[in-house]
Input
Amino acid sequence: MHTVDISHIAEENHRYAIHLAGSQNVLSYQNNFFVLNDLHEREPFESVDFWRDVSLAAEILLKASLLKHHVPFFKKRAHGEYGEKVTAATNLWLHETLKTLQIDYIAQINTGTISTAIRSAEKELFPKIAWSAKKEKLISEMIYIIIRTRRNRNSHFFFPNQGSLDRSEIEILYLPLLNLLEELYHISKGHL
Output
């Protein structure tokens, strides 16, 4: 049976979040910073794709930050004893986390929702980093806004009223959130 090594899962998810954020060419990533590209008219489906992808990018970037800074948020999924086995051969912290949770298969890993991830950040990550309380509060508030306005609505169904891009929403909500999460991801271990 094949075993998957997830020792570098934080870095892989960081790269995936960057990919998702830029997948519709509304945003791009330059020098560890997300920027807005020139906006042009898009088909409604393409606009909804952007809202879904950028919301998912924020979630994955948050989860990558939790993993990078050794905040466990995985849970064990019941009845997942199938498929590929999992290891974290060169990541002692993640290896111990998997062992403690008795996770042997990829299918047993439950990464939870964006809501559970932000609660883990609020409870376990934010208290141990030397970072502005204002930034921590802003990340939490922005994530709760996108959960209520875009994240869940655009992930599971198409609504025509969501089929356009709102430049101000991108500039006021999504860009600052992604850049704060990017800063959180890159905060050095010395600040922990």
Summary: Helices lie at 9-22, 44-68, 92-100, 114-125, 133-156, 167-186. The mean pLDDT is 92. The longest strand covers residues 3-5. The CA atoms of residues 6 and 130 lie 28 Å apart.
